[in-house]
């Protein structure tokens, strides 16, 4: 049996061959600890700094912030939220976020609520977008921290993060953006952010590495304590191999951004035509084109995924796929339990061919027809 056709780009992306090649020397002969002071260690440290500059260059043209490598975006989000919340004054202990945020944000603010912070989780409309009038109303003068995701990992909807951040700053609050699904794909208004989390494996880099960007002048408490290897504020030995893979993946994404965008938009058009009998979940316009979250009455998504073995696709976030919990994102859109259970997520990108997409959607539709 041939390899499955991969349509789960929101869960992770295939490793770019160029990123794998950039990692290989640092996995094999150049294995030194980048925090060692000898020649081999200094060479490894230099590779880390090259990667840092590659990621920073793709993030922004203005050197107005620092980039700290982490084990991934979950660590970066936890660090941003907990580290910033630890320094909020007593009159600014309110935290505002959205109902469709990733679990690493929602679970972290729930943890902070248990430690005395007031948390307000804003609902979204049926298209997945937050109402900016509601944002104006609920981000009060007592708010110290606001968090909003750029591109939703389940439904691909693009939130107006610059507008949300403007309200936060007008009220004197900090703004954190989970930019994981949007980085390298859509415009990231970094100038509007105080902190932003990104991840390598969503842009054809390796798993196990992400980063937190923090604007100049902002100090937050460390999350991990120890040697303080990353600028004295993030402890743990860095992997030069992972950093090199991250840097090369980001460099490649920047160089290929227009070509990738055109390719993904062409695939989206094919997907919408072939899945015309399905209903799109979330906004059709304010959306990253490499995501199709679709539902069809009478379909059992879990059964469909198990039956269509030649296609790798999902029913939602990989983080929650084994939990048995219904999608909190689809519930926030107002979908019933039955509608959520009949929804699938299709993600495609750089290495998806039109022929593979057509074949995969044909198999999915064939299995769906047999269920209905």
Order of helices and strands: EHHEHEHEHEHEEEHHEEHEHHEH
CATH level-3 fold name of the largest domain: Aspartate Aminotransferase, domain 2
Low-confidence stretches: none
Overall number of structural domains: 2
What is the mean predicted local confidence, pLDDT? 95
Helix content: 25-40%
Q: What share of residues are in beta strands?
A: 5-15%
CATH architecture of the largest domain: 3-Layer(aba) Sandwich
CA-CA gap between termini: 27 Å
Report the strand count. Answer: 12
State the major sheet.
7 strands, mixed
* Overall morphology: globular
Main sheet strand line-up: 2-8-7-6-5-3-4
- Rg from alpha-carbon coordinates: 21 Å
- The number of helices is 12
**CATH homology group of the largest domain:** Type I PLP-dependent aspartate aminotransferase-like (Major domain)
Return the structural class: alpha/beta
Query: At the first level of CATH, what is the class of the largest domain?
Result: Alpha Beta
């Amino acid at each position: 049996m041939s390899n499955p056709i991969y349509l789960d780009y929101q869960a992770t992306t295939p490793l770019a061959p160029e990123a794998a090649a950039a990692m290989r020397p640092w996995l094999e002969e150049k294995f030194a600890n980048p925090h060692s002071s000898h020649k081999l260690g200094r060479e490894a440290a230099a590779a880390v700094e090259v990667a840092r500059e590659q990621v920073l260059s793709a993030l922004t043209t203005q050197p107005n912030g620092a980039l700290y490598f982490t084990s991934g975006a979950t660590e970066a989000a936890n660090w941003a939220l907990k580290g910033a919340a630890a320094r909020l004054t007593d009159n600014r202990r309110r935290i505002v976020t959205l109902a469709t945020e990733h679990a690493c944000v929602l679970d972290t603010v729930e943890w902070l609520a248990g430690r005395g912070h007031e948390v307000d989780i804003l609902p979204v409309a049926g298209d997945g977008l937050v109402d900016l009038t509601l944002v104006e109303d609920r981000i009060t003068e007592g708010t110290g921290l606001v968090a909003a995701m750029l591109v939703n990992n389940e439904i691909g909807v693009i939130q107006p993060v610059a507008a949300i951040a403007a309200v936060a700053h007008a009220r004197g609050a900090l703004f954190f953006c989970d930019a994981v699904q949007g980085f390298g794909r859509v415009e990231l208004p970094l100038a509007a952010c105080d902190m932003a989390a990104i991840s390598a494996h969503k842009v054809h880099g390796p798993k196990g590495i992400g980063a937190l960007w923090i604007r100049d002048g902002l100090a937050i408490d460390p999350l991990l304590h120890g040697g303080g290897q990353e600028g004295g504020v993030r402890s743990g030995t860095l992997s030069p191999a992972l950093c090199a893979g991250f840097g090369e993946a980001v460099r490649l994404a920047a160089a290929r951004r227009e070509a990738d965008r055109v390719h993904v938009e062409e695939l989206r058009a094919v997907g919408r035509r072939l899945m015309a009998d399905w209903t799109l979940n979330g906004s059709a316009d304010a959306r990253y084109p490499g995501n199709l979250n679709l539902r069809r009455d009478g379909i059992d998504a879990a059964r469909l995924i198990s039956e269509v073995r030649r296609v790798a696709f999902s029913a939602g976030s990989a983080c929650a796929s084994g939990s048995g919990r219904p999608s909190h994102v689809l519930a926030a859109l107002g979908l019933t339990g039955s509608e959520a259970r009949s929804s699938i997520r299709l993600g495609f990108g750089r290495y998806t061919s039109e022929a593979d997409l057509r074949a995969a959607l044909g198999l999915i539709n064939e299995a769906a027809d047999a269920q209905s």
